Amino acid sequence: MRARIRTDFPRRVREIEHTWIALSDGCRLAARIWLPDDAEADPVPAVLEYLPYRKNDGTVARDAKRQPYLAGFGYAAVRVDMRGTGESDGFLEDEYTEREQKDALEVIAWLAEQPWCTGAVGMWGISWGGFNALQVAAHRPPALKTIMTLCAADDRYADDVHYRGGCVLALDMLHWASSMLTWMARPPDPRLEADGWREKWLERLERVSPWIEPWLTHQRRDEYWKAGSVCEDYSAIECPVYAVGGFADGYTNAVPALLAGLSVPRKGLIGPWAHAFPDDASPGPSIGFLQECVRWFDHWLKGVENGVMDEPMLRVWMQDSVEPQPAYEVRPGRWVAEPSWPSPHVEAQQWELPGEGERSLRAVQSTGTEAGAWTAEGQSADLAGDQRPDDALSITYDFEPLAEPLEILGLPSVVLDLAVDRPQAFVCVRLCEVFPDGTSALVTRGLLNLAHRASHEEPSALEPGTHYQVSVPLDVAAHSFPAGHRLRIAVSPAYWPWAWPSPEEVTLTVFGGRLELPARALRAEDEELAAFGEPEHSPALKIEETEAGPQGRTIRRELATGLVEQIFDWDLGGSSRLVAIDLETSDSSHTVYSILERGPLSAAVRFRATSGMGRGDWSMRSEVTSSMTSDRHSFHVETRLEVHEGDERIFSREWKFAIPRDHV
Predict the structure, then answer these.
(1) By the 8 A CB rule, do 514 and 616 touch?
(2) Mean pLDDT in order along the chain per 10 residues (664 residues)
(3) How far apart are CA 115 and CA 660, in angstroms?
(4) How far apart are CA 437 and CA 103, in angstroms?
């Protein structure tokens, strides 16, 4: 649903396009601020979004839709580029560092002291901004009164782009590290910093490096990952939290985890959405999310009694049964709610896996062609397709057709009694809905490195042939199964390109097990839920598209060799011109995931991306090519960065890493 453009606001808004926030060590952070015209005379609370994604030309289009909207309701909406990004001074060394968080504390203190601010500050953000809102809240800065966190995680090891269930997330590990390298190579905008911008740029380039090296070095849930994981101590967060996620996104498990773990006032919202704001998301329906943000901030930053905390703690889009498609404009379903989480209205049911006797399967490495993206972006082929091709390469357990409808809400799990014939192995477990015509639709899934069966911190070696009982957690789901449909559990020892393959072909034997389901009873109260408003935005930025970028997901198979390639083209906007600042900007991203059906050591990820900007007769572009492969003992990563200014190559560097595989 296209958002309504709103131009009438209670407060008239002015914009400070670029200003500096000076930190105690002399570093300056670049900020953009939208605030009411009369805020100096009638101060307002401040709401901070704190990101590395370049306020001037990176998030500028999405900011224009939302930041002035918030300001129009009596807030100073503040968008700050983190140290070493955009126009800000310094250097960004990695994700979610202690330095990043300490800088944020200084920014919040600065905001609270401004003459146009009441002294009350909130934070909001999606993805990186959702992560650091949680992390900063755990420091308890006095001025920070509340946060809204979207598409983020409370556990950096378990629920981010690096590892899933102790398995290397091949889909995103190299892709994300290389994408950040591409963007980090962009310079400050010369228009905003006429003196010194080029020296700052060249200094950054000399220090830049691919972040995949520390990510792959830390293959267990050690102190590296615990830092910034707020699940380590939920009690550290003392301000109210609104957590938001979407079922097509990879970060939604944090919503129920935060509701269960926190003791502060809190709310949760999960829609059908991908990795996007709920006011402009796919699959729909989109909602009036900015109105919801205003209600939340009005209550916690202004003390307005608007009933926002009288509503249920958790609101969820209960997804209807629908045939699988690579994308949906709208995902059928309805809103349901729970007064608390865990909910007294959700019953844990145990379903013994049907059938008797052991069942064995040798891994086919191309299993996973229908997996879709881990972090769907609402693009043309993000979502999981009909699961039958992957089901055929898995051990499957089909339950009897349902005699009556069944709804689930929560995190299912599957307990398996199993054995493997190799010392390193993992399992992928999928819960699917099977239609009467045989169509198999993915409901939820989970991965588990079997060496991590008891702990991600202290793995236990596998003994080939030994029987183990393991519990595989599946991602949070809300799904309505109609009568006559079946539930299917599918188990496989391969799932490419989500999980990096085991170093040897694995034969998995399953002796039995059970499905643990969070069954939810129908509740009349769901019919009484107030409807969300229609999506609204402030006026969009004027952008001229000069060249559309490719997007989509393609599968290529060589019958003679057994080579299977999955090709992802991420739509990053192609090439366009930001009219107001006369800036040309461009981005492209292309990743190929290849594997031989009987060759786990053939797995390879090849990445290529470009990012550029220009104005008048000046231009630059960064180009990154990278690859990731493995042998029995190590992961091998090669990355090359080239930066061009006009037709001249001004920077070039290559990195090669051999990082030992964790063999426990």
Answers:
(1) no
(2) 93 98 98 98 98 97 98 98 97 97 98 98 98 98 98 98 98 97 97 92 96 98 98 98 98 98 98 97 96 98 98 98 95 98 97 94 97 88 96 98 98 98 98 98 98 97 97 98 98 98 98 98 93 97 88 92 94 87 95 97 98 97 98 98 98 98 87
(3) 54
(4) 57
Q: What CA–CA distance (Å, rounded) separates 140 from 235?
A: 11
Neighbours of 69 (CB within 10 A): 25
DSSP state of 330: B
**Residue spans of alpha helices (H) in 306-391:** 388-391
Dist CA 538 CA 12 (whole Å) = 12
Largest Cα–Cα distance in the chain? 77
Q: Left (φ > 0), alpha (ψ -120 to 50) or beta: where does 625 sit?
A: beta
SS3 431: strand
Cβ 121 vs Cβ 45: under 8 Å = yes
* Side chain identity, residue 625: T
> How many residues can be counted in the chain?
664
Integer Cα distance of 450 and 109 in angstroms: 46
Per the listing, tokens 């309701």 go with: 73
- In angstroms, the CA 80 to CA 401 distance is 54
Residue 452's CB is within 10 A of a number of other CB atoms, namely: 24
For the record, the structure tokens of 264 come out as 């502060």
DSSP state letters, 457-518: SS-----TT--EEEEEE---EEEEEPTT-EEEEEEES--TTTBPPPSS--EEEEEEEEEEEE
Residue 68: both structure tokens together: 């002035």
Q: What share of the chain is helix, strand, coil (3-state, %, to 5)?
A: 15, 40, 45
Specify whether the backbone of 573 is left (phi greater than 0), alpha (psi in -120 to 50) or beta: left
Dist CA 627 CA 587 (whole Å): 19
Residue at 281: amino acid letter: A
Contact 532, 315 (CB under 8 A): no
Alpha carbons within 13 A on the beta-carbon side of 443: 33
Cβ of 25: how many Cβ atoms within 10 Å?
Answer: 12
Task: Tell me whether strands 163-164 and 4-5 are parallel, antiparallel or unpaired.
Answer: unpaired
Between helices 60-72 and 289-302, what is the axis angle to 10°? 50
Sign of the alpha-carbon torsion through 167, 170, 176, 182: positive
The CA-based angle 154-177-635, given to 5 degrees, is 100
- CA gap 354, 362 in Å, rounded: 21
